[in-house]
Amino acid sequence: MKRALVLAVLVASAAACGRDEPATTPKVARDVYLGPDGQSIDAVVPRNATLETLLKHHELPSDTMGSLMQAVASVFNPKNLRANQQYRITRTLDGLVREFQYQIDADRLLRVVATRVMNAPDTAPAFTAEVIELPKTFVLTAIAVDIEKGGSLIGALEAKGENIQLALEMAKIFEGEVDFNSDVQPGDHLEMLVERAMRDGQFAGYGEIKAAIMDNDGRHLTAIGSKDAAGNPEWHDAEGKSLKRQFLKSPLFFDPRITSRFSSRRFHPVHGTYRAHLGVDFGAPYGTAVRTVANGTVEFAAYSGEAGRMIRVRHAGAYQTAYLHLSSFASGIRVGARVSQGQVIGFVGATGTATGPHLDYRIMKNGKYVDPIAEHKRMPKGETISPSALAAFFTLRDEALGRMTSLLAAQPAAAASSKPPQR
After folding, report:
1. The domain at 257-378 falls in which architecture?
2. Contact 97, 68 (CB under 8 A)
3. Nearest alpha-carbon partner for 224 in 246, 193, 195, 178
4. Residue 189 in 3-state DSSP?
5. 126 torsion bin: left (phi>0), alpha (psi -120 to 50), beta (else)
6. Do the domains at 7-133 and 257-378 have one common CATH topology?
7. Is residue 178 classed exposed, middle or buried when 0-12, 13-18 and 19+ CB atoms within 10 A define those classes?
8. Domain ranges of the chain
9. Which residue, among 141, 139, 136, 116, has the nearest Cα to 127 in the 3D structure?
């Protein structure tokens, strides 16, 4: 939906009004469209607005508001109204509401239409509501980027004109193998085969990622996308082994850096003495989301002395993980709560004994602290696809990688053909 800015010309003639008067000067109405049988107002939802305050702003009668809100609630939770999303109210010439539209997200539109707008004393307005899936097309494309010195995956993709969403999806695919906070090196190369969603000729997000390749610090990693029996996406390497690991390599996404490693003797910046440091410190901005690295059960979530606000999670295989110095806990995080791999459980802070905001991340195995980085390397690789499904997987792999190679090979040729001929 685009904001409307339409020139409305109001001309009063002698024939129409019964007297001889000159035509009026054309008027420009900002953000208002005057149609032949009503008007539409296009705007964006202001901050801290609710559906009720939004409708009150347009001075709708109380019975109209009540009927419209009741219709909306049947298909959409009004509490999910978001600031800066676009909406439109269309009214008849005598001010009755004919239609209300709200852009839920890039793919959905809430549409409320009046089924009875008569303003009779004993007849309240009536509305029907529906959520419309906005049509879009998908174009298969291949993208290749190189990580430059001091650069990042986000920066490399943005330089190609791509959205940060794609970088986050790539990080999820390889998060069992690559810590995108510390493992990405200058000279790393990435290729991906992805669906680009288009609507009315404009970019509207991404569809499925079919395949990806990453050359990282001498390692050649391949990811082939498929779906499990429930239709959920899953990823396997070129040999059919699952890329999902028991633990993620990092409890954080992008930007944080390792500021202190696991050590039996480290100089403590606050106490000024040497003592053991039983985890890995990630420097990160205050409020950065912290994820649990594996499925498990919360067994501690409270303030704990020098550790500040801390969460400890129990996992399978006699493992426990701890997340220290948090500013706050995520909603629902309490003792006994079940958590899933990658779920946000808290937020970076500087509670307890800390010189600044950071996350102290720890792993315990059989009750003993171990180096998180070294322990992750010792964890087993993912399970392999069943032998009966391997042949079909290899066909899928070869088709996806072949398609990606051909699309990438065509890109330089297309660029060259668009250049003017040399004279």
Report:
1. Distorted Sandwich (2.70)
2. yes
3. 193
4. strand
5. beta
6. no
7. buried
8. 7-133, 137-236, 257-378
9. 116
What CATH class does 7-133 carry? Answer: alpha beta
Distance CA 346, CA 290 (A): 5
Tokens 């510390």 sit at which residue?
Answer: 182
HSE (side-chain half, CA atoms, 13 Å) at 221: 25
Output the six-digit token pair for 47.
């901050």
Distance (Å, rounded) from C-alpha 215 to C-alpha 194? 18
Q: Report residue 201: phi and psi, to 5°.
A: 80, 5
- Between CA 212 and CA 263 the distance in angstroms is 36
Question: What CATH class does 137-236 carry?
Answer: alpha beta
Identify residue 390 by its one-letter amino acid code: L
Integer Cα distance of 303 and 313 in angstroms: 15
Q: Residue 157 in contact with residue 180, Cβ under 8 Å?
A: no
Q: What is the CA radius of gyration of the chain?
A: 29
Cα separation, 250 vs 235, in Å, equals 18
Q: What are the angstrom distances between the C-alpha of 358 and each of 302, 310, 349, 350?
A: 17, 12, 6, 6
Closest CA to 362 of 417, 411, 414, 315: 315
Which amino acid would we find at residue 339? Answer: V
Q: List per-residue pLDDT tens for the chain, 423 residues long.
A: 433 433 333 333 333 333 444 444 444 334 444 445 568 899 999 999 999 999 999 988 888 999 999 999 999 999 999 999 999 999 988 888 999 999 998 889 999 999 865 555 556 688 999 999 988 899 999 999 999 887 888 889 999 999 888 988 998 899 888 878 778 889 999 999 999 999 888 888 899 999 999 999 889 999 999 988 788 889 999 999 999 888 988 898 865 577 787 666 555 565 455 567 888 999 889 999 999 999 999 999 999 999 999 999 999 989 999 999 999 999 999 999 999 999 999 999 999 988 889 999 999 999 999 999 888 888 887 888 889 999 999 999 999 999 999 999 998 754 444 444 443
Give the 3-state DSSP-derived string for 362-417, with helices as H, strands as E and coil as C.
EEEECCEEECHHHHHHHCCCCCECCHHHHHHHHHHHHHHHHHHHHHHHHHHHHHHH
